[in-house]
Amino acid sequence: MSSAIIQLLVLAGIAVFLILRLRSVLGTRDGFEKPPASVSDNDVSRRRGRPEFDVIEGGPDRDITDHVEDGSDAAKALAAMKMAEPGFSVSEFLGGARGAYEMILMAFENGDLEDVRSFLSAEVAEAFDSVIAEREREGLTVEANFIGVREVSLQNASFDRATNEGEVTVRFIGEMTSVVRNADGEIVEGNASEIKRHRDGWTFSRIMGSNDPNWVLVATGE
User: Fold this and answer.
1) Full-prediction pTM beyond 0.85?
2) Phi, psi (deg, nearest 5) at residue 41
3) Checking phi first, is residue 19 left (phi over 0); if not, alpha (psi -120 to 50) or beta?
4) What is the pLDDT of residues 67-121, one digit of tens each?
5) What pLDDT, on the 0 to 100 scale, is given for residue 29?
6) What does the domain layout of the chain look like in residue ranges?
7) N-terminal to C-terminal alpha carbon distance within the chain
8) CATH second-level architecture of 54-221?
């Protein structure tokens, strides 16, 4: 046997050995093979209940952390409200609270709560009615002009998981002019040309997820 043939046989043996080694490491592919299956949405949803997958996609909820400190009790309460009612927006709530503040405050100053009574709890309505009735007994009237709201900020929030009731306390700084006149029309308090600031802390309540979209004023303070 010539040396050339021997060399060919040796090279062929080496080639076969390498092919077998590659197959043992890489495996074989017969025809078209589908790419590795991606994780399905169902798999992700099942994993979210497990601690190792319990993460917030996209980081903190800016709709919450723009108004309260991340990780605070208020932030957790607001997050729970969103779980109970996915369409709830803190920013939209504060926008509505701004409008409610002007509407309710002016109704109280003008001594007529009928248009806003559905937005007041029984206790708050009773307290407002008492002050209005006292003015009437003394023959006093208020002339008020609302200038605007300088500040609206979320002070606190709480959520009752048993009842789905959410409460949010909002701090308002409003500006208005007002005078109080007696039965003879004389000014006994205030100045029509002087703008005064009102600082109020109002607490609104609502059952999250209910069909009634209205928040109710349940407490007032500074």
Assistant:
1) no
2) -60, -35
3) alpha
4) 999 999 999 999 999 999 999 999 999 999 999 999 999 999 999 999 999 999 9
5) 35
6) 54-221
7) 109
8) Roll (3.10)
